[in-house]
Amino acid sequence: VLSHNLCTVLNVPHDPVALEEHFRDDDEGPVSNQGYMPYLNKFILEKVQGNFDKVEFNRMCWTLCAKKNLSKTPLLISDEDAFKVWVIFNFLSEDKYPLIIVPEEIEYLLKKITEAMGAGWQQEQFDHYKIGLNTSREGLSAWELIELIGSGQFSKGMDRQTVSMAINEVFNELILDVLKQGYMLKKGHKRKNWMERWFVLKPNIISYYVSEDLKDKKGDIILDGNCCVEALPDRDGKKCLFLIKCLDKTFEISASDKKKKQEWIQAIQSTVNLLRAGSPPPHKEARQKRKELRQKLLAEQEELERQMKELQAANENKQKELETVRKQLEAAAARAAEEEKKRLQTQVELQDRFSLELEREKMVRQKMEEQVAQKSSELEQYLQRVRELEEMYKQLQEALEDEKQARQDEETVRKLQARLLEEESAKRAELEKWHLQQQQTIQMTEAEKQELENQRIIKEQALQVAMQQLKQLELERKEALEQYEEVKKKLETAANNTKSWKDKVAHHEGLIRLIEPGSKNPHLITNWGPAAFTEAELEQRQKSWKGKKATSE
């Protein structure tokens, strides 16, 4: 029965075979798991073309749900008016289930009804009601809206007929798209007589009826972007004339007064302009703008709430961090104060103890500095003597084989003295290092001071051992000097012995040559061993002999 009635109202051919086929394997009926909604979508709603009476469709849906949901409380409006409010609710409600109408749309609807009744809008009263509404829910359901309007809360002082007429006017505008309606005179096309008709202006058509009950329709004026409306001068005893021009016909109409004439001209011209621009009716466009504005405000509010939550979370984190830092600072300050107190007490104790040790260390340091200065002076003298010995060594390089042997002995003595000098320098550096370490021990704590005192005693013992070694080195140095004197005497004796030989072989220079330290250049080899002169000297002597020979000849 439901499917048949839906098909009838929606102008869709009913197919009982499809219904039986859809539920053939299910004995439970249309409320079973097979489901009625798939059948409704596939076989009924997908076939709807849009050429059905929406009011009749709404009336059928109203019949299905009104008895169950409509309040039993007596209302100031009739069932027909409640049906119209229900249809208006479906038009103004939000596009989500369950359907509700938000406070902004409630205010818009109540304003329209109040204006239609000719009463003044009570903004304060609605604001008070809105506050109570926002605290409990987001909006009203259809039945709560019907109960609100039927209770007369916003229509006090108005009778039932006035409220019903206002609801009907708002219903005609929002649901039936009636932009304007009223009685006017129309001139006939054939008989050219003037007849009173009830005109109804919609977004793309002007219909005219015998009376306002809309039962006897006499014709339509199809509007499009090519239509225009013009005011006409009074003639033939008719006043307040205007003309509607369409592509195929022209309609002459007479209004009851100049105000009505101007209102109709403006309404028709506005409708034609909307058709030219392809815009929806004003109330639908206004509803879409209100919806977009609500969505924008909701998005901004959600974004603001999100930012507030982020700021609140960040603020809480900052507060926790600051509290943690504050506690840490307090604990650190307490520890620092305690440590400072202990440090001052320890400093006073150590200062008294170190004062005596410092004086003692100063005396020791002065003695060590004097000893180091003395050792430095002795070292400088020793270095000077070493340089003198090196100079003497260079002079003895021209000696003969005995001189060479003496030079080797002197070289041995020089190396011995150099070793003694290096050992003395190393001992001096070690003494200086111990002196610096003893200076650093002045700044240590009492426990470290005791340990350093033990080390200082050990180092002083090592210093005494080093002094003894230094004395031993000094004795060895004196022995080396005595050996050097002996070698020097030998060198002088060897020099005296070789002096006579130099005089004897002066005129026999080519036959005999004193043995001297050889050069680094390669030597000639003779049958008797290495030559006593180089190849360059040999060539020079050959040239000299050839010159003497040529002169004698």
What is the strand tally? 9
Strands across the major sheet, in which order? 4-3-2-1-7-6-5
Largest sheet: 7 strands, antiparallel
* SSE sequence, one letter per element: HHHHHHHHHEEEEEEEHHHHEEH
Span between termini: 168 Å
Low-confidence stretches: 507-514
Mean pLDDT: 82
Radius of gyration: 66 Å
Q: Structural class from helices and strands? A: alpha+beta
Total helical elements = 14
Walkthrough of the structure:
- It is a single chain.
- This protein is of the alpha+beta class.
- Among the domains are: 53-177, no CATH class; 178-280, PH-domain like (Roll), CATH 2.30.29.
- Helix content is 65%, strand content 8%.
- It has helices at residues 2-10, 16-22, 36-43, 54-69, 79-92, 103-117, 123-136, 142-150, 160-174, 258-277, 282-395, 401-440, 446-504, 535-552; strands at 180-187, 194-202, 205-209, 217-222, 228-232, 241-245, 250-254, 525-526, 529-530.
- The protein has a seven-stranded antiparallel sheet with strand order 4-3-2-1-7-6-5, covered by helices on one side.
- It is elongated.
- Residues 507-514 have low confidence and may be disordered.
